[in-house]
Amino acid sequence: MLTPIDYPISLDFDAENGTFEPCPQVTPRHLSDLKEMFSDQSTVAQILRENDPLIYEIRYYPFTTTKSDMALAVTRIFPGTIGNEFYMTKGHKHQREDQPEVYYCVRGEGFLLLDTLEGEFRAIPWRAGVITHIPPMWAHRVVNTGNDLLVFIGVFHLSAGHDYDIVARKGFAYRVLSRNGKPELIKQD
Ligand code: S6P
Ligand code: ZN
Predict the structure, then answer these.
(1) Closest CA to ligand 1's atom 7
(2) Does 1 have pLDDT greater than 80?
(3) Is residue 147 a contact partner of residue 181, using CB atoms and an 8 Å limit?
(4) What is the pLDDT of residue 4?
């Protein structure tokens, strides 16, 4: 556990790699951690029989003070597909109804998917330089459709909480699939 800080702190960010120092926590997400999110379950099972590829990594810095809990997370999504579905984050909705987030795409290309899970959906084309505000109550997922690393920064409050189950249950309205190497948004049944 980090002790709370009440003084300014700066991190040394490597935008090319999507890493920073000091970094107290790195969370890897392998295919087994988000296997139920991909549509092609027979390919998931087949891959998992052989290995468990790393899909993305999250580096956290909790800027926790005695009066605030703002956090920074830098996510690096590797390029690739599971069947014909591009690598993506698990996706979640914040538990608290009053908690937004700001995302900044630092490198790579893909989509930020936003879904209320109650009928409203947006797919924001993403490339380096795009900053998106995610309003409260919108589930969010990032998809890497490029041939290279996709890196983005997220800023949020730790007390926001993360609801992954609701995404697993309801799913996003569209999936991003590769058709002849190009990304296509396909409506979910
Ligand atoms: C946290 C923020 C991000 C994600 C990260 C991985 O609110 O949205 O830091 O945690 O991009 O995505 P996921 O869906 O596995 O948490
Ligand atoms: Zn979030």
Answers:
(1) 156
(2) no
(3) no
(4) 63
β-bridge pairing 69-77 and 54-64: antiparallel
Do 143 and 113 touch, CB atoms closer than 8 A? yes
Give the ligand with the smallest distance to the CA of 142: 1
Q: Is the CB of 59 under 6 A from ligand 1?
A: no
Mutate-to-test residue for ligand 1 from 76, 92, 132, highest number of ligand atoms within 8 A of CB:
92
The CATH architecture one would assign to domain 19-187 is: Sandwich (2.60)
The tokens for 86 are 């591009």
Q: Which of 36, 72, 89 to mutate to test the pocket of ligand 1 (most atoms within 8 A of CB)?
A: 89
pLDDT band (50, 70, 90) for residue 7 = confident
What pLDDT does residue 3 have? 62
For the chain, the domains span 19-187
Q: What is the pLDDT of residues 11-60, one digit of tens each?
A: 999 999 999 999 999 999 999 999 999 999 999 999 999 999 999 999 99
Residue 158: nearest ligand to its CA?
A: 1
What would the two tokens of residue 65 be?
């003070």
Residue 181 alpha carbon to ligand 1 centre in Å: 26
Q: How far apart are CA 139 and CA 94, in angstroms?
A: 7
